[in-house]
Design goal:
It is built from 9 helices and 15 strands. The chain is of the alpha/beta class and about 325 residues long. The protein folds into 2 domains: about 150 residues, Medium-chain alcohol dehydrogenases, catalytic domain (Quinone Oxidoreductase, Chain A, domain 1), CATH 3.90.180; about 150 residues, 3-Layer(aba) Sandwich (Rossmann fold). Strands 3, 4, 5, 6, 7, 14 and 15 form a 7-stranded mixed beta sheet that branches. The two termini are about 15 Å apart. The protein binds NADPH dihydro-nicotinamide-adenine-dinucleotide phosphate.
Length: about 325
């Protein structure tokens, strides 16, 4: 059972000295449990937080433990009445080839309904994040301008497509020309701006002639600063992620801009609300119904970036923190 353990907490960008591939035993399956062979491992930005000891909304992974992660796999042995050998399941098997999970924590997947990989992508946690954050906090109205950062990624691509369906002007922000092209051509955004361009602020202002009513925040950093210069009165900002800061080891150098920022929140009467997708778990059934229909009807498109082999997980995860992924990042751990 090849597995990747968190050997040592990273400072800055994690690498193979922090995340070590080792051979472990295939775990024993107890009563009520299921032994699962991993097919897809989902790689997600939140994993950087789990590697850190800093207090957060979920406990850190212990040093020496297998890294956590959402997985799609196939049942090898079941000691739970709801599962049989060969069933496809969604679980949290982590960065390894075989895992034992409580049957009650698994969800059975029907490969006839949708490709099984989508259970950790557009029909899973990232898709739900987009849906919940936009509907519950962003509340975009017809004719408004919605901006989303990390626009070509797992969450961003879905945010923009839902906002388009609601009749908004949708502007993406991404870090590469091909990503910007894809966001406009494949996902139907009205415009997409590359934040790495020298005149990014100017391009963003031109793409948002009526200002910004909803900003779906995925990154922080210079994108957030540029957006704040363009927000309209009563703008809503679902604070979903801050990936530009996940490898930070300290505060940025001054000057302290917090008073100016608080002033802007007051004068513009902004709503900024942080959320973790599970806060809206009561909307999960609505999401499954709506998103399945949108995919079936071709209203929502998606792209997955599948990297072969557990041994490539660490470099793929580094790539995710550097924008190398093209769509929802998955590791193909075993055959499907
Ligand atoms: P993506 O598929 O979007 O991949 C991450 C992308 O982030 C990269 O491809 C890169 O795109 C961008 N990025 C990386 N570094 C920077 C940087 N320094 N500045 C700007 N952009 C950067 O990941 P997800 O869609 O899975 O996640 C997107 C965000 O949503 C993350 O912040 C994540 O933490 C958050 N999230 C929050 C959840 C919640 O419950 N609150 C749940 C799920 C995700 P580019 O080339 O454009 O730079």
């Amino acid at each position: 059972n090849r597995q990747i353990i968190l050997a040592k907490r990273p400072e800055g960008m994690p690498d193979e000295s922090n995340l070590v591939l080792q051979e472990g035993a295939v775990p024993e399956c107890g009563d009520g449990q299921v032994l699962v062979r991993t097919i897809y491992l989902s790689l997600d930005p939140y994993m950087r937080g789990r590697m850190s000891a800093a207090k957060s909304y979920a406990a850190s992974v212990e040093e020496g433990a297998v890294m956590e992660g959402g997985t799609v796999g196939q049942v090898v042995e079941s000691r739970h009445p709801d599962f049989n050998q060969g069933d496809y399941v969604l679980g949290r098997g982590g960065w390894q080839e075989y895992s034992v999970e409580q049957g009650k924590a698994l969800r059975k997947l029907d490969p006839a309904q949708a490709p099984i990989s989508t259970a950790v992508g557009v029909l899973g946690m990232p898709g739900f994040t987009a849906y919940a954050g936009l509907e519950e906090i962003g509340k975009p109205q017809k004719g408004e301008t919605v901006v989303v950062s990390a626009a070509a990624g797992a969450v961003g691509q879905v945010v923009g497509q839902i906002a388009k369906m609601k009749g908004c002007r949708v502007v993406g922000v991404a870090g590469a020309e091909d990503k910007c092209r894809q966001v406009v051509e494949a996902y139907g955004f009205d415009a997409c701006v590359n934040y790495k361009d020298d005149d990014f602020e100017k391009q963003l202002a031109e793409a948002c002639p009526n200002g910004i009513d909803v900003y779906f925040e995925n990154v922080g950093g210079k994108v957030f600063d540029a957006v704040m210069g363009l927000v309209n009165d009563f703008a809503r900002i679902p604070v979903c992620g801050r990936i530009a800061h996940y490898n930070d080891t300290g505060l940025p150098p001054g000057p302290d801009r917090l008073p100016a920022f608080m002033g802007k929140i007051l004068v513009k009467r902004l709503l900024l609300k942080g959320f973790i997708q599970f806060d809206y778990i009561h909307r999960a059934a609505d999401f499954q119904r709506d998103m399945s229909a949108w995919i079936r009807e071709g209203k929502v498109k998606y792209q997955e970036d599948v990297v072969e082999g557990l041994e490539n997980t660490v470099s793929a995860f580094q790539g995710l923190l550097q924008g190398k992924n093209r769509g929802k990042l998955l590791i193909q751990v075993g055959e499907d």
